[in-house]
Design brief:
The chain is an alpha+beta fold. It has helices at 7-30, 37-50, 123-142, 149-163, and strands at residues 54-55, 73-77, 80-82, 96-105, 108-117, 166-167, 173-175, 182-186, 203-206, 209-211, 218-220, 227-229, 235-237, 240-245, 248-251. Helix 1 (7-30) runs antiparallel to helix 2 (37-50) and helix 3 runs antiparallel to helix 4.
Length: 255
């Protein structure tokens, strides 16, 4: 069932979104060669606690996962697209790191993700990151009342295909509110003019996930959470939570 949010609810979600934005900024600032993923998870945990919020991911246990999620932030390196576990892995110069974070304030959630290079990035890595970010920007622009969910999906897919990138199959964005994942699903592939009619008050998370090698296929690693590209190519992931308003899309996960 799709729930439409009141202005008061969206105000609370905006506060949760600010927490997420600050946590992701702190992770990006702390990420450098020699730092472990566990250290970055601790950075995000401190920010969320300091801002009197609760981490949405810690302990989250969907039916397909073998264990509850053990961290505060998903940290996915290079060929890991999403859901990477924070562990003792140490970052190296040139790694592409995707950080995905959720936080809850007053019973409402925010969810966002960013991909960046650790240290200096090669030109191909910069292009992958920039193109995935562009897809998110285009999809947000398409999230207007009267439009269709397919308009968002088409904006993401068109950006990927024009650049020669794959799109992670079987994963996409989602509704968000009193639960981190709600209806409706927000796909990353589809046809414009199709799907759910977009209405004022709808709160969704849009999250393009691109594969550098051009294939859409991926596999779940032995930890039961991390999803990696099937061809071993690098991936990038960007996400914002946003609300559809009479004046257009309003991003909720900004500082």
């Amino acid at each position: 069932m799709v729930t439409y949010r009141t202005p008061r609810e969206l105000d609370v979600m905006r506060e949760a979104g600010r927490v997420v934005a600050h946590a992701l900024a702190a992770v990006q600032e702390a990420a450098e060669p020699g730092v472990s993923l566990l250290e970055l998870d601790a950075v995000a945990a401190r920010v969320i606690a300091k801002m009197d919020a609760r981490p949405s991911f810690l302990g989250y246990h969907p039916g397909w996962a073998p264990i509850p999620y053990p961290g505060v932030v998903c940290l996915s390196v290079n060929d890991v697209v999403v859901h990477g576990l924070p562990d003792g892995r140490v970052l190296r110069e040139g790694d592409l790191l995707s950080a995905d974070c959720g936080a809850e304030v007053g019973g409402y959630h925010g969810d966002a993700a960013v991909t960046f290079a650790v240290g200096a990035a090669d030109e191909a890595g910069k292009r992958l990151v920039d193109t995935t970010r562009l897809a998110l920007e285009r999809a947000i622009e398409a999230a207007r009342p009267g439009g269709r969910m397919g308009d968002i999906a088409h904006a993401v897919e068109r950006t990927a295909r024009e650049a020669g990138y794959g799109v992670l199959e079987g994963c996409g964005g989602h509704g968000i509110g009193t639960a981190m994942h709600e209806d409706p699903p927000v796909p990353n592939t589809g046809r414009a003019g199709r799907g759910l009619r977009l209405r004022e008050g709808l709160a969704i998370a849009i999250e393009p996930m691109f594969h550098e090698g051009g294939r859409d296929e991926a596999w779940t690693m032995d930890d039961g959470w991390s999803i990696a590209t099937a061809d071993g190519s690098r991936a990038a992931h960007f996400e914002h939570s946003l609300a559809i308003t009479a004046d257009g899309p309003v991003v909720l996960t900004l500082p």
